[in-house]
Specification:
The chain is of the alpha+beta class and about 100 residues long. The protein has one domain. Helices cover about 25% and strands about 30% of the residues. It is built from 2 helices and 5 strands; from the N terminus they run βαββββα. Strands 1-5-4-3-2 form a 5-stranded antiparallel sheet. A hairpin with a 5-residue loop joins strand 3 and strand 4. The radius of gyration is 12 Å and the shape is globular. About 35% of the residues are buried.
Length: about 100
């Protein structure tokens, strides 16, 4: 699920997921590639099986939170449909 593809142009299209940092590490296949950005603490770059590139990130938390604390994570994608695809992909991985 983690990807090294270019994620330029992804943005938020209304899909969020509630999970812990540790749950996402397990579901997404590893630790986030980017940490301590301007408006997020953690950013994963991922790809679905059909090649949709997307990001998962904590938007404007601006605080330290526990690895097992449930928070809301944003999904960034190139359009609303790809964001929806990514949302269900992450949800499936979290529920596996």
């Amino acid at each position: 699920m983690l990807s090294n593809k270019n994620f330029s142009g992804t943005s938020f299209h209304g899909h969020t997921i509630t999970a812990t940092y540790n749950e996402l590490v397990d579901a997404l296949g590893g630790k986030p590639q980017y940490t301590h950005g301007d408006k997020s603490n953690y950013d994963w770059v991922c790809e679905t099986e059909n090649g949709t590139v997307f990001t998962v990130y904590d938007w404007k938390e601006y605080r330290n939170f526990g690895d097992d604390e449930k928070i809301e994570w944003h999904i960034g994608a190139h359009d609303k449909q790809k964001s929806s695809d990514a949302f269900f992909c992450v949800l499936d991985k979290l529920n596996a």
